[in-house]
Amino acid sequence: MSFQKLDELGRSLGALEHALAILAADEATQMAVGGGEARAEAMSALAGMHHRQTTAPEIADWLDAAENETLEPDHAAAVREFRREYTNRTCLPTEFVERQMRTRMRCEQLWRDLRPKGDWTGFLPALEGVIEFAREEAALRADATGLPPYDAMMEQFDPGNRVAEIAPLFAELKSFLVDFVPNALETQQNRLKKTPLRPLSGAYPVEKQRELGLAMMAAVGFDVTRGSLSVSHHPFCGGVPTDVRITTRYRSNEFLSALMGTLHETGHALYEQNLPTEWAHWPLGKARGMAMHESQSLFVEKQIGRNPAFWEWALPVVEKHLGERWERDEILAHVHYVERGLIRVDADEVTYPLHVILRFEIEQELIDGSLAAKDLPEAWDARMRDFLGLSTMDTPQDGPMQDVHWPSGAFGYFPSYTLGAVIAAQQWAAIEREMPDVNQQIARGDFEAVNAWRRKHVWSQASLWTTPELVERSTGEPLNVARFRRHLEKRYGA
Amino acid sequence: MSFQKLDELGRSLGALEHALAILAADEATQMAVGGGEARAEAMSALAGMHHRQTTAPEIADWLDAAENETLEPDHAAAVREFRREYTNRTCLPTEFVERQMRTRMRCEQLWRDLRPKGDWTGFLPALEGVIEFAREEAALRADATGLPPYDAMMEQFDPGNRVAEIAPLFAELKSFLVDFVPNALETQQNRLKKTPLRPLSGAYPVEKQRELGLAMMAAVGFDVTRGSLSVSHHPFCGGVPTDVRITTRYRSNEFLSALMGTLHETGHALYEQNLPTEWAHWPLGKARGMAMHESQSLFVEKQIGRNPAFWEWALPVVEKHLGERWERDEILAHVHYVERGLIRVDADEVTYPLHVILRFEIEQELIDGSLAAKDLPEAWDARMRDFLGLSTMDTPQDGPMQDVHWPSGAFGYFPSYTLGAVIAAQQWAAIEREMPDVNQQIARGDFEAVNAWRRKHVWSQASLWTTPELVERSTGEPLNVARFRRHLEKRYGA
Ligand SMILES: [Zn+2]
Ligand SMILES: [Zn+2]
């Protein structure tokens, strides 16, 4: 009986989530510019209904009762995830959430204004307010979950992620990369001395790039009857599992950024499209957190899409759509291009983790109070010099002002990006062990077996396990960076 | 205090209505084919939330209290419309609504299957069920409103519409048209003997038709920052006032159907875009019913878009976009083409009212029980012969099976179409009285003054008055068919 109430709640929440997801996708792709204010009001009211429905006090009673009922295993698992969601959503007082939301929104708006100007001084007071709230939030979440504060923040994004496990792995990865990046750059330089980069200039009409993207999406497994590709300023994967909305952005003078972006979002989409439909209206039926989601996008973008074998198959497809012939090594020189840079979102897969580890280290200090917001530029600059030999002291817009995460209050999210890359490498290694001919399959454009493995081990599991459990059950190994290191060494080493 | 509760209710309902409107537009234009089931579930759950919120018993208390408070005039008007909506929504028991909904949905599905086959016998039992419910509904609505049953049905669509007023007008219009149609056809035949119709064949690329449509929309006043034009199988005007979604459908061998359809939907859109924003979240702020809405679409489509003066301005625009030169009288021969036909939605403005009056007369007999569903084919055929000299005895798909309205239970809606045409003619007459040079304005593509008149007299009034009150206040005359008759005589007479 109690379970049935939770089940009905799930359907009602599912309807609001469906509306919010489609309204968000619509806003980015279809909405008239003048429609923004009414849309924001409508979405905020719907989010309020969702919040009231997810935090209703009677849910606690239903959960207590359901936890004492004898349930089939998947209902029991569903109750566990209902409980997790309920705890995550009710551990902050409503009044706190509202004050925090106003502070975040002001800070995010200010960030949009001041980042282009690099006005750190103007931005700092607002950021201090957000960090103050984040510390309080972490303490409240720690109380509710019994976890250390930063763990309690990460728990929202990836259940089971713990600093005690991640910090050593990130430390290992950092010390590896600090040495490896210069080596990879030198190797690249030697290679480019022999064979200079073939420039990607020329005209790539948007409509043809779109057809190419759609062909690649369908080939790697995207179900075009349950999703679509359109254009937005910031690419995303949104919508709902039965109607996944991918977007990309085209530049007519090159085709790789849109194509690799489309492959990345396709990776996210495959996860959504292949979640178990019978659980769709329960938290249990959702994708397991941000790190696992990013592992799926990076699997398609990096493990498949930057794999030399992939381009054996892909280059004729490119030629067919764009009318331009490329040799495999010519294109690999582009898609494997490594560069030291200041901006995380522009980083390649070799340097990217250093950007994340920098934030992970700093975030913990911000949350535990050992670092003050006003000391961020120095703390950032010091690590940037250590990690990549670059300075951001004079350009805060390329330093601690570069990401929306902190102004919007998302502390504990950054690790997911690099964990995703690490997990994707573990998954690829597991697949290679099981299917030694996987590269030959991919070279002929056959992604069936790879997708079958991912469906069985990842997609069908939805939120049945915590993130670390799911990593271990799917790959046969606990979370570790060895596979990712070997992946980088093989692809970028001497 | 009570008013504030109604005000908050309005915002909450507005959010759900916003979501439902955008989800519906998205479904028709963007949704992946496989997304339909989950979309239907989500929309039905959101509609359920809307229903529960609009029919909550405490609203009756708020209304009672607010009606006894001293309120500013627009708040008092808002309360009156909140009350009207509450009465319309609560006069049917929930259990009745659910049973009726199932019967309607089954009948509508059956209609989609059986209409193409003309299978009246297979369809009849389902239609009988829907009519049974409609009679019961009319009785319940009559009880709640104190109106006669059929009036109580019309009241949902056009507050204030009464058979006692409409029936004599429709009778006058019918007897006029039964004579006028043959005369108009003869006049047309004589004209075409002299100057044969210039055929509209040739290639009209969809993209160019779209640009033409957008140019015309903008010219007649559509605000492109608060709306858009896209493609769907069934053209509609949807979305929300700040983001009105118009759709059309293109045929590449002719351009007039898409263009006139776009002008029609633009008429609906102008009404929505120009409703008073300060009332937007109250029922008071909505467009006043279906007849008034149709008057706005028909005003743009027929009074403006089929006006000879309009084409003085429009033909160079057509030439610019489609690269084809037309003379005014050549195009008028197309847009004024009159034809006897069986299908309402294909009818021209001369014959269309006869299709509506036929349904209006039959509907009343269906609701008062003097006509049984099984006798519909004969009743339809008899009137069709009287009105237009055509028979549908052997083709029920072109007779009583042609519209979705009855299978879906929408009794009392049909009159709105012709009332819209009648009201549009009254509005045009009022404008001509006030601005004798209106045709010259339109001939130079200047729609400012016409739109200013409509904004002042119609759009800004939203739901401040009943439909007949609004007609009289805006045009200076009670609802009458004289203006529409004169309009037809002038345009189609000898
Ligand atoms: Zn991603
Ligand atoms: Zn219409």
From TrEMBL, chains A, B:
This is Metal-dependent carboxypeptidase. Coiled coil: none annotated. CDD domains: M32_Taq. It catalyses: Release of a C-terminal amino acid with broad specificity, except for -Pro. It comes from the Bacteria. Keywords: Carboxypeptidase, Hydrolase, Metal-binding, Metalloprotease, Protease. It is an enzyme of class 3 (hydrolase). Its EC number is 3.4.17.19.
